[in-house]
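Hey,

The postdoc asked me to send both predictions to you directly instead of through the lab channel. I've kept everything plain text so nothing gets mangled by the mail client. Protein one:
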Amino acid sequence: MLHFALGKEFEDLGEHARAFDHVAAGSDLQRRSINYDNAAHIAEIDRIIPPRPGRGSHPVGPASRGADPVFVVGLPRTGTTLVERIIASHSAMISVGETGAFSVELRRAMKANPDGPELAAIGRRYVDRLWHPGCRPTVVSSTRPFRMISIVG
């Protein structure tokens, strides 16, 4: 963190080359402290989204309830929280906010079938995890849509 603080101070002093050196050094230290395997991440995405003709939306059948949930997905800082709150403010809706339920179901399905998940089963279990007895349609938000791309399209 000291490198980042020094980078900010040198930037404020107009010494941009020194600021960059400190930010680069801080980033390098931070990168070394993170246990991240890029190849494993790419392999996981390739298992989730297997190559197939006509990539895009893949219907998984009707929901297991009478009213379908509303999904608000987008990248971080793109207004998904605002959209979710606007929709959830309607008396016919209830919000569960951001949830890790989809990731849990997807990982469970990938462990059970490493060649590719059974999409309809994932969808049913996911909706079941979110549903409340006597519930109105649910608003679900996510800023990690890449995890849903094979199912949502």
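Protein two:
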Amino acid sequence: MTVTDSTGATSAQSAPAMVIVVEDQTVSVSVSPGYAALNVGQSQLFTALPSGASIPYIGYQWYVDGTAQSGQTSSTFNYSPASAGTYSISVILTNSTGFPLVASSTATVTASVTGTQTPTPTPMPTPTPMPLTTTLPATTDNSSTVDLSISGNITSSQMSNVAIATNQSAASTKLSFTVTGESGTTGFGNITIPISVVAYGTTPTIYIDGQIAPNQGYTQDSNNYYVWYTTHFSTHQITILFTPTPNNTPAPTQNPLTAQKQTATQPNLLQAVIFGVLVAVAIVATVLGALYWYMGKNKSGKHPH
């Protein structure tokens, strides 16, 4: 904003204002049709039907039995099974804000060998889209409970040992939990963390089993942090570490989860050096003592002529 007086002179100009828009996370999606029976070699067109979103979706990824299908990134997926069996068809959606609100639903395909009689499938009810946002309780340092909002295809039943811990000396806050899922599948998680529970630190970094997660990010407003990440399922320890905002010139990269362990090994190295010096001094003193004794003995053993 610019302020101008009656003469036309500019007297002040404000700094640009920043507006953060956060997408409503109460969205859902279904896959149509929810069930299909076909022969090997035939194909079925599936369609993703999102609802409850005010911002259009631009990112789609289709999966068969948890495996991402290369190039299948539109709102429809034409699937042709290569062999007989039962397959799970699912889709993940991302909206145009760049904030990874994730929605998923699953359909089932039963494929038979051509020429065999296909049994008439039992009609299945149309799946009811489930709200993606659920609540996850977390325990704090003083044993109180804080409710965190989560969304994505990682559910609260797959998350355990959820705890929030603060470290005043390190000026950091840590949210940690364990996630478990079917091996070979991919998990997408979004967590809403109230700023009021982050006593120290302002910048969140996500670690999976002590290593920085390759796919992660966050946004924030005046009330919450919105943190997201992806992981390849089995069982993993997830840590969201809030640390002070880094300087303009960052220090060398170091995993803060292992820094304490590395520091603890330094006194052991110093002790080893001191011990080695003491041993060397003892050896030198022993050699000099023996030499002095030997020279004294030879001197006393000589007789005058």
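Summary for protein two, as requested: Residues 266-300 form the longest helix (35 residues).

Thanks,
C.
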